[in-house]
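As described in the Methods, two query proteins were run sequentially through the folding procedure within a single session, without resetting any intermediate state between them. The first query and its resulting C-alpha cells are shown here.
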Amino acid sequence: MPLNLCEIFYSLQGESTFTGLPCTFIRLAGCNLDCTWCDTLYAKNESTSMPIEKIIDQIKGFGCNLVEITGGEPLLQKETPNLISKLLDLNFQVLLETNGSQSIQNIDTRCIRILDIKCPSSNEPDSFLYENLQYLTKKDEIKFVLGSRQDYEFARTIIMKKLSQRPKTRTHLSPVFGQITPESLAAWILEDKLPARLSLQQHKIIWNPDQRGV
C-alpha cells in the first residue's frame, strides 16, 4: 500500500535532542487538527501517492542515517508504522513526530516517538490522548509549543503532575516563533526550576522562517 506523501527533503534537524544534526525528513500529507500557529498548512492538501519502497529508495539517496517522519499527522495513515519498521530494519535511526491524537501503542519501540502536547493557544488542547504517556520509553520525547504565558502554565502543570519521572532532557518547551521571546521563556523556566529544556526552532533561526525544505 502506498503512502500519501507531501515532501522529502534533507536538512539539519531543527528541534528535539537531535537539533543540529543532518537529517532526512519524510513529511506525510494530511492532518486532523487545525492549530492556529501551524507552519505546515500546505501538508494538509499537497499529496502524492508513493509506495514505501520508492520512499525508501529516495531516503537512501541522501546517504543520511537519521530520518524523521512528520506531517501533517503521520499516524493518520495505516502504512506509517510499516514504513517506520522497514527503515529501522535497514539500520536507519528513525524519529516520529506526532501530535499525540493517535495511539502510539503499536509503533515500533526502536523508533524515537516525539509527542506534541497541544497547548490552549493552538485551539486544540483537548486533542492529546493521555494514554499515550504509558507507552513512552525513556528515549521518547515530549514537546510543548508555547504561544502565551497561559500555554506555559498549562505545560508546567502537565510536566509537574504527569511527567515528573520523565527525563528532563527529553521534555521540550518551544516558543512559537515571533510570539514569545526566548528570554521570557528562559526566565519562567529558571524561576520555576522546571525539569524541562528550552528548545528553539533552529531552522527558523538559520533560514527564513517561512522557507520550506529546511
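Immediately afterward, the second query was submitted; its sequence and C-alpha cells are:
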Amino acid sequence: MTTSEITSSEIPKPERTWAMFAHLSSFLGYTCIPLASIVAPLIIWQIKKEDMPFASDQGKECLNFQISMLIYIIISGILTLILIGFAFLVILYVLNIILTIIAAIKANEGVTYRYPLTMRFVK
C-alpha cells in the first residue's frame, strides 16, 4: 500500500506520531548542533522507512524541505553582501518555523503535507 492510498483514518497513531516527530526534529537545527535540522529527519526517515510508509514519506518531505532551506540560507548569506540578504534571512527563519509547525500538525492528523518551495532531492 503506497502513501497516497492510505487515508488518515487508516494510519495508526504511532506512525502519525513518528511523522510529526520527523517534522519537529528539524527544530534541533536551532540549537548549537550544526546541520541537526537535516540529520534528525534523515535518521527518523532511515529508521522508519521499512515499516511505516507515512512516517517515511513525511520524513523525506521534511528532509527535502530542510535541504532546500539550507540552500536558500546560503544564497541569502551571500546576498547579505548587498544588504538584501538580511531581509531574506529573516523571512526564511519565520517561514521555516511556521511551515514546520503546520507540517507537524498535519502529520499528527494523518494528512500528507507537502512543503512549498521545496526541491525534491530525496525521492
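The longest helix spans residues 53-79. We note this only descriptively and draw no conclusion about the first query from it.
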